[in-house]
Every structure is written in structure tokens, then in C-alpha cells.
Design goal:
Elements (H helix, E strand, L loop, with lengths): L8 E3 L5 E4 L4 H12 L2 H5 L1 H7 L6 H26 L14 H31 L36 H10 L16 H18 L3 H11 L2 H13 L5 H9 L9 H14 L6 H6 L8 H34 L11 H13 L4 H34 L7 H16 L7 H11 L3 H31 L5 H24 L5 E2 L2 E2 L2 H15 L1 H12 L4 H9 L5 H5 L8 H6 L3
Length: 575
């Protein structure tokens, strides 16, 4: 069968036998789409669009997509496909930058510590939906507090002393956060969430253990199911009273909002995180492509599908938010929110009011489960591919190494399924992949554009697909995208706010732990550069020459033929 058939191998121009390749081109495309289209497409983009001028938000969003999102997406796909290595191994083209490969591998590992927990929440909700009456429809459960109040009895929704049944189910019934006083009072892992987390880990392992032979087939379900469910939910949503008003609010255009710098910053931030650049996943996935695969076309198709999915999901989300606003006679901004509160509180509450609510809940949480699984698969594949390509002896033990990675991830994730696990989750979410991933992509762009060279990189692409990137792409890689990323790193530091969960403020030691986590990945860049310069032979100038020259051309350094470039030439001649 297809699942056990040998995966074809490729031979590169040097004649060396290379790794397995995707069984079919569609396996790769679905894997990239499945990774890039994640929970944030459902819970963040629609809300950002609504609060930042509706349709007007698409102006800065598309602008940043064109000047940074697509060029960086294209760059990573081409980088992985040409060099046939993971996130660290590709830097044989400029060894001094290999540290950034370890940076993105660490970031993907850190994200896995808490992202899998979100999937376990979705699985817990899925199991809870197989009942005659959903457990978040009333306040008569053992976990409810005296502050619990149904929508019908609570017209002052913004009252901080009131909580809806769905909100209390999430916080008190699922998380049991009421049994913790803060991050220094975690308690033991809750067996219900631990069991769900274990199921998620098992699913991830058997999706990844054989490499693209298995993951390429799993995504046929996990990457396509969300589109089926979103379409079904949209058809149901638009038939609800108030849905039209919700969609109208989502699309309403307020061009005056474009005068607000914050709108542009949020659009830029959304681009940075929504496409999945900087996690090493695109590099890992594309490294399993055939050498002659048209990565340019793939970049355009997959990045466009990602953005269109975000926009499409907004219709689904706001049709239900409009319905909630109409049903409870409250302004839309009282029910509109982003993040986990949307998919684990507001949306379940809306579903609970529908006829056949249990069926709709099952459908919705299956969608969340599949959205999360293939994104988690991508992150794990980045770690596994990146490390086994760097440490070749691991190739023969991929199944065992994959088991080690997923079990280690599971053990760390246990901190997030304790009574105070939400505090650990919030801390990880705030620090693991914020400024650090922007920094990683910035260094990656500088390494490709200014040290390896845009011209040389363009030659590599032409060798693969027979078409040299146009002036637009080269200008973006050389100047526009690095400047954009530098701006985002500065903004990220300048606008940094300590994490909080509701009214809970984290103690100073927790913030220090968070910063140590962020810095542990970013410091891989200078630490590896220092290590490389210290271990290479010769004088400092010779070491530097070796460190910035592709490993295949070190003989040129031995002969004194050191590559040079001048800024003036690059400014004048973009050939």
C-alpha cells in the first residue's frame, strides 16, 4: 500500500544519494498549508480585522504580506529545497550563522511544550461533547461558583464579578484554576488533561515516526478537515438571526483607522506569526522536495491559501458572534474577543444554544483538533529533521529519537496541565516565540542576503527551477524584508508588557524565567559564532574567511581567494 511503499530518494548535482522525498507533491503542499493554517487563523485574525477598521485592515495586512511575508516564505522554501538539510544543516552555506538554525529549533521545541496543551483542551472538550446536554450550558455543576450567571440573567456582561457557564467550565471545570493561587502554587497534573495530552502525544508520534512516509498521509485528513468543517459552520452560521450584523461589522470599512500606527504594527505582527516563518518547519518540509520542484509557485500558492483561510474564517466567527449579540441583546464588542476565550468560551456558548448542540460541538472541536495536530506535527518535524541532519548518527534511529522528543515534550507539558497550569502556559506563550522568533528570522535574512549573497541565492533557485527570481524578490530579500524585521524586533522590545492572566500579575522571578527562556534561543546565534571562530584553524582573518564561506568552497580560502562584496556594488547593480 501507499503507507508502506518505499519513499523515493533523490540525487543532488554532486551525485550524492539524498534523503527520501514526499510521495506526492500534494503531500508537501498539504503539510505546509496544515502547518501554516493553525488555531491563530481562527481566533486572532478575524478579531484583529474587526477591531482595526474592518476591511481597511486588509490594506496594511496585504502590504506587509507582499513586502515581507511572501518573500520570507519563498526564501525558506528555497533554502531548504536547495540544501536538502534541516534548519541547522542548511547553514553550510555560511557556517558562522548555523547558530540561527539552533535558535529556530529551540523555539519550535519550546512552542511544543504548550501548543500540545491547547490540542489536549480541544480533545477534552470533544469527549465532553458526547453527552445529551453539554456541560457548559448552566450553572448547576459542581465546579460552578456563586458568581456564575447565565446570559439571560446577566445583561451587564462586562461586570467583572460575573461569569458565564462556558467561562466557568473552561476555567474551573477544565483548568481548575480556582485550586491554584498562582504560578508558585501549581499542584499536581490533573489526570483528565494528562490523559488527553498523552493521546495527543501518541497521535503525534505515530504521525512522525517514519518521517514523510507517514506525516504526508496524515495531513490528507488533518489539513483538509478544517475547510470542510468551516464551510459547514458557515452555512449554519449565516442562517442564524443576527449573523448578517456580525458579518457586516467584520467587513465594515473605517479607513481613518489606518492613521493609527498601532493598526499597522498589529498587521505586521500578524504577518510575522501567521505564515510560520522562523520555526524551521518550512525549511524542513521543503528539504524533502525533489530538487527541481517549483518552490516559487509553492510559496505563492500556500501563503495565499493561508491568508485566504484567515479571511474566510472571519465570516464563520462573526456570523456566530453576531448571533450571540442578537440573542442576548448586547453590543457586538461585548462578545467579540480573540485567543483561547473565543474558541473555548464564546464559540462553545453559541453552539450550546443551537438545536442538536452536541453534534455541532463535536464538529467544531474536531476542527480544532485537526487544526492543532498538523501545526504541532510541523513544529516537531522541524526539531527532529533539524537535529538528525546535524547529528548524522541519529538517521538510523529516527523512530527512537522521535519517541525521545515527544516523550520529553510530554513531560515538560505536564506543568501546563496542573491546577496552575494556565499560568505556566501563559508564561510560555508570552516568551517562547515572541521577540526571539523575530530575531531569528532577522538573522536568517541577513545571513542569506548579505553574507551568502542574494545573487548567489538567486543562482541556486535558477539551478532548481530554471527561473531566476525577479528584481522585486531580490530587492525584498536584500533590503525591504531585513528592514521590516529589524523594525519589528525594535517594536517588540519597545512595546513589551509583562505577561498577565486576567488580574493576576506574574511575580518578578517568573518574568526572569521567561526572559531566560527567550534569551536561551537567541543567544545560540552569538555563542555558535564564537565557537566557530575559536575552533577553525589559522589567524583570525583566516577563521573569519572560513566562517563566512560555504563549506564546499573552503579550498578557495586555502588558496587565498576569499569572497568579497561591497555595499556600493549591491546598491547599484542588482543583477
Amino acid at each position: 500500500t501507499t503507507l508502506v511503499a518505499p519513499t523515493p530518494t533523490q540525487t543532488n548535482p554532486s551525485g550524492e544519494e539524498e534523503r527520501e522525498t514526499w510521495g506526492k507533491k500534494i503531500d508537501f503542499l498539504l503539510s505546509v498549508i496544515g502547518f501554516a493554517v493553525d488555531l491563530a487563523n481562527v481566533w486572532r485574525f478575524p478579531y484583529l480585522c474587526y477591531k482595526n477598521g474592518g476591511g481597511a485592515f486588509l490594506v496594511p495586512y496585504l502590504f506587509f504580506m507582499l513586502i515581507a511575508g511572501m518573500p520570507l516564505f519563498y526564501m525558506e522554501l528555497a533554502l531548504g529545497q536547495y540544501n536538502r538539510e534541516g534548519a541547522a544543516g542548511v547553514w553550510k552555506i555560511c557556517p558562522i550563522f548555523k547558530g540561527v538554525g539552533f535558535t529556530v529549533i529551540l523555539i519550535s521545541l519550546y512552542v511544543g511544550f504548550y501548543y500540545n496543551v491547547i490540542i489536549s483542551w480541544a480533545l477534552f472538550y470533544l469527549f465532553s461533547s458526547f453527552t445529551g446536554e453539554l456541560p457548559w450550558v448552566h450553572c448547576n455543576n459542581t465546579w460552578n461558583s456563586p458568581n456564575c450567571s447565565d446570559w439571560a440573567d446577566n445583561t451587564t456582561v462586562s461586570d467583572i464579578y460575573k461569569a458565564t457557564p462556558a467561562q466557568e467550565y473552561f476555567e474551573r471545570g477544565v483548568l481548575h484554576i480556582q485550586d491554584s493561587n498562582g504560578i508558585d502554587d501549581l499542584g499536581r497534573p490533573r489526570w483528565q488533561l494528562t490523559s488527553c495530552l498523552a493521546v495527543v502525544i501518541v497521535l503525534l508520534y505515530f504521525s512522525l515516526w517514519k518521517g514523510v512516509k507517514t506525516s504526508g498521509k496524515v495531513v490528507w485528513i488533518t489539513a483538509t478537515m478544517p475547510y470542510v468543517v468551516l464551510t459547514v459552520l458557515l452555512i449554519r452560521g449565516v442562517t442564524l438571526p443576527g449573523a448578517k450584523d456580525g458579518i457586516k461589522a467584520y467587513l465594515s470599512v473605517d479607513f481613518l483607522r489606518l492613521c493609527d500606527a498601532k493598526v499597522w504594527i498589529e498587521a505586521a505582527t500578524q504577518i510575522c506569526f501567521s505564515l510560520g516563518v522562523g520555526f524551521g518547519v518550512l525549511i524542513a518540509f521543503s528539504s524533502y522536495n525533489k530538487f527541481s520542484n517549483n518552490c516559487y509557485r509553492d510559496a505563492i500558492i500556500t501563503s495565499s491559501i493561508n491568508s485566504l483561510t484567515s479571511f474566510f474564517s472571519g465570516f464563520v466567527v462573526f456570523s456566530f458572534l453576531g448571533y450571540m449579540s442578537h440573542k442576548h441583546n448586547v453590543p457586538l464588542d461585548k462578545v467579540a474577543r480573540d485567543g483561547a476565550g473565543l474558541v473555548f468560551v464564546i464559540y462553545p456558548e453559541a453552539i450550546a444554544t443551537l438545536p442538536g448542540s452536541s453534534i455541532w460541538a463535536v464538529i467544531f472541536f474536531i476542527m480544532l483538533l485537526t487544526l492543532g495536530i498538523d501545526s504541532a506535527m510541523g513544529g516537531m518535524e522541524s526539531v527532529i529533521t533539524g537535529l538528525i541532519d546535524e547529528f548524522k548518527f541519529l538517521h538510523k534511529h529516527r523512530e527512537l529519537f522521535t519517541l525521545f522528543i515527544v516523550v520529553a515534550t510530554f513531560l515538560i507539558s505536564l506543568f501546563c496541565v496542573t491546577n496552575g497550569g494556565m499560568y505556566v502556559f501563559t508564561l510560555l506563550d508570552h516568551f517562547a516565540a515572541g521577540t526571539s522568533i523575530l530575531f531569528g528570522v532577522l538573522i536568517e535574512a541577513i545571513g542569506i542576503a548579505w553574507f551568502y549573497g542574494v545573487d548567489r541565492f538567486s543562482d541556486d533557485i535558477e539551478e532548481m527551477i530554471g527561473q531566476r527570481p525577479g528584481m522585486y524578490w531580490r530587492l525584498c530579500w536584500k533590503f525591504v524584508s531585513p528592514c521590516f524585521l529589524l523594525f519589528m524586533v525594535v517594536v517588540s522590545f519597545a512595546t513589551f508588557n509583562p505577561p498577565n492572566y486576567g488580574s493576576y500579575m506574574f511575580p518578578p522571578w517568573a518574568n526572569m524565567v521567561g526572559w531566560c527562556l527567550a534569551m536561551s534561543s537567541m543567544t545560540m546565534v552569538p555563542l555558535y559564532a564564537i565557537y566557530k571562530l575559536c575552533t577553525l584553524p589559522g589567524k583570525f582573518c583566516d577563521r573569519l574567511a572560513y566562517a563566512i564561506t560555504p563549506e564546499t568552497e573552503h579550498h578557495l580560502v586555502d588558496n587565498g581567494e576569499v569572497r568579497q562584496f561591497t555595499v556600493c556594488k549591491d546598491l547599484i547593480l542588482m543583477y
